[in-house]
Amino acid sequence: MLRLNLFLLVICLVTKTFSQTSVYRDTIPVYEAGLKMQNPWAGGINFSSFSTIDLNLDGKNDMVAFDKMSPSGFGKIRAYLNVGPIGNAIYKHAPKYETLLPKVEDWALFFDYNNDGKADIFTYTTGGIRVFKNVSTITTFSFVLSKDLIRSDYNPGGPPNIANIYSNSIALPGIADVDGDGDLDILTYSVFGVKIEYHKNRSMELYGNADSLKYDFADNCWGDIQESTCTVYLNQCPLKPLYSQIINGSESKILHAGSCLMSFDRDGDGDQDVIMGDVACSEVFYAENGGSSTNAHITDTTALYPNYPLKSSVNRIKFNSFPCTYYLDVDNDGFKDLLASPNSVAGSENYQSVWYYRNTSTTPTVNFSFQKKNFLQDGMIEMGEGAYPVLFDVDTDGKKDLIIGNLGYFNGATNISKLAYYRNIGTISAPSYSLITRDYQNISSYNLYCVAPTFGDLDNDGDKDLVIGQNNGQLAYFENTGTLGTAVFTTSPTVFYQSIDVGSFAFPQLYDIDKNGLLDLIIGSVNGKISYYRNVGTAGSPAFSLSSTTFGGIDVKHYGSLSGYSMPHVYDDAGVTKILVGSEFGNIYLYDNIDGNISGTFNRVDTNLFKINEGVRCAPFYEDVTNDGIRDLFLGNHAGGLAFFNSSNVYTVGLNQIDNSILASVYPNPVTDKLYININSATIENLTITLIDVLGKEIYKTKSFNKTLTIDVSFYANGIYFLSIQNENVRTIFNSKIIVD
Length: 741
Fold this sequence. Notes:
With 741 residues, this protein is mainly β. The protein is built from four helices and 54 strands.
């Protein structure tokens, strides 16, 4: 007991000492339609590819999603632990694994190429495909570069002609054992983009194992088909007039800027069928292989998938742009299911963009049954594209509510921008949020685009008014006309407020930067700089005058990039003004030396504050939400989600921890009744499990030789507890904060 109390004391002291320079990933309960969300702070999903991998080495495949998020190419991998029983698709966001994966760009697909039971990573590199090999052990999770660029012999049987297997930055190749010999082959569109190339892996033939990635160019027109202008043409190879016209330019055709291929055996006959998507098309195309595993010949095709062979339009896969599919076991029943999502970077579904089709067949022939359009997204805060958080006490109850602006929800043709209102239904020190409306104050009716909110009392009447930044660089002003109680904003806003225009994408903050008692405007924009509009009016009648378009010399534009998407958050740190700035590539910048230096160049303290990156176009809001006197961090991103990081010297106990959950899984958390503990290592036994409250009191302790354990917490008071698991050598293998709710 003394040792455990000492551990807690050390953590508290360390956290308090560095409270202004450290934040720790945390969670706050969030409810929608009365239901608690599984992963509220998981960060959103826009345009993702999906794969499975055993992240925590518990024998169950978990899930990773590579979200393209924006045109920058710097997407984001999200990791989710599989915590559901057989037949149930339940996943828990596991961000720590995201930092352990190698850096990838543009796309990533996970497949086990060497048959060692561990999924490897196929990803884009200039001109083709790069591979990272999974070398994880029971105690480490890691990858090494296996192939910097996969090459193929384009003249097998003759003088070698070795060149890269072509794949561009927005393409997704088909990776599967096409010929059934035990190693992974590759299907990819040719440079012309109308026919499929088949590259055969000869590892098994040459070496008797699948360890090598040694390819021969086996077929220049796999399946004898061409895909042109969103139509699949059969019997096109050997070369038919259509193909000749396409490559010679007489056929009016825009060649593929990008395509995706998913290879699978739909009917269990031993050959590979394919599902194809294209950047210029809204539907996928299913192609039925009537040939064999070694001689593919497509005999039928339809855009009405997955209703094949019925060819019904009910629940078919159809997105506005670039639909792609992924074949993986989602619900742990041993049969692979189907996920569909746009591979676009804009102009397609974004908050209901992961369609889940369950395979209800128990035979080798698949039978995909539609389940939902928002797989994973229904368990997280999901704002479509863009998430710009602020805290504002809407109902003046003394508790800070959460308002989130966005670029928009896709409605089938365009994005509709709105403000979401999550009311704080918890307490001042233990917040909990419930979604009240996705269109707070009916903001969508004003046809504003990319709404970034900030609140402040601009008319000196004791309540806070609303200013919204827009994509056109201008601001809209909504006066708060309410009295005591819930805020009520005017229905006649000023949509070009004081003729302020910062060019493109305005991200404003109202803040008294010169400390003269009047709120000024600090505005970020697409160019990565900050504009400063000084309030030269009065407390009740502001007048904003442009003082600088390069305020403090701030510039968060990445080297070589044309945009920066600066999103500022000014705050007071013990009387010292500081500025956090979100950026296009997801880094948070920190500036100081502002006070008394308004016209000068500020000091850039950090270009990657807290060493966290939640994805592109990040929007920080750094304010104390737990009422402990220490600021906490809400961080929005372009995928439409949020992450929450706590700085509290109470909340961070257990998060600033020995993070060794690769050896143990503990779920759910927050927990209402039963807490489940699974030990993932076969070598760990004779455990001591201890639960401690925030005062350091030991409220539960047991010894166990079992690999699984259930703790009933239903009779404990709601609050924060600390779980410690030790092995027989009294070595702590797991520490975690547990929220009983």
